[in-house]
Amino acid sequence: SQELEQSPQSLIVQEGKNLTINCTSSKTLYGLYWYKQKYGEGLIFLMMLQKGGEEKSHEKITAKLDEKKQQSSLHITASQPSHAGIYLCGADLSSSNTGKLIFGQGTTLQVKP
Amino acid sequence: GAVVSQHPSWVICKSGTSVKIECRSLDFQATTMFWYRQFPKQSLMLMATSNEGSKATYEQGVEKDKFLINHASLTLSTLTVTSAHPEDSSFYICSASSLGGGGYEQYFGPGTRLTVT
């Protein structure tokens, strides 16, 4: 079983709609990273969360880490076609902050104009 | 954010040959870099941790004699796929850590697509 579960696996939304992607672990997330990837390309860093209850926003994307540090969500407001891609959450499961990341399966987002 | 480059971006090689992939941190020093592998429509799988000036640490199931990692400087790590076989065909991505205002941030290279014929 996956140490990091992402849901949903895929998502199709109408332009302008809001959406949320979740990332859940049974272990403590000492560092939680959100990335966006276009198929066959590298990963674009979106946000990093470390503290329980932390929330960060950049443009129309907001990421949160719950108080227990076992679940994170990525919320996109008023989605646009440019938001389409694969969203990956990566987590450092080591308290010593090794930087080694375990990744979720990814969520493929399509935004219909 | 910090920039990580990879070279080449794609390579085709014949079975039995070796291929070297470079990962460079362009505007910061990285004592630690990581190598990942990604199969089509799947997530990233960590292969090894590359430490500057010391031996790499490999994840379980990754053959260290097949995937040679060298981290000769604070800005360069190389992955050499030795005696490549078609099953080694994959997308290889490296990452490097940079200490930002909120802690360590992981930046990824653009990836290298390897096709072994």
Report on the structure:
The complex is a heterodimer of chains A (113) and B (117). Chain A has strands spanning 4-7, 10-14, 19-25, 31-37, 43-49, 55-58, 61-65, 71-76, 85-92, 102-103, 107-112. With 113 residues, chain A is mainly β. In chain A, strands 2, 4, 5, 9, 10 and 11 form a six-stranded mixed β-sheet that branches. In chain A, a hairpin with a 5-residue loop joins β4 (31-37) and β5. Chain A is globular and about 45 Å long. The N and C termini of chain A lie far apart (36 Å). Chain B has 117 residues and is an all-beta fold. Chain B is 0% helix and 57% strand. Chain B has strands at residues 4-7, 10-13, 19-25, 32-38, 44-51, 57-58, 67-73, 76-81, 90-100, 103-108, 112-116. In chain B, strands 2, 4, 5, 6, 9, 10 and 11 form a seven-stranded mixed β-sheet that branches. In chain B, a hairpin with a 2-residue loop joins β7 and β8. The model of chain B has no long low-confidence stretch (mean pLDDT 90). The interface between A and B is medium-sized, with 23 and 27 residues.
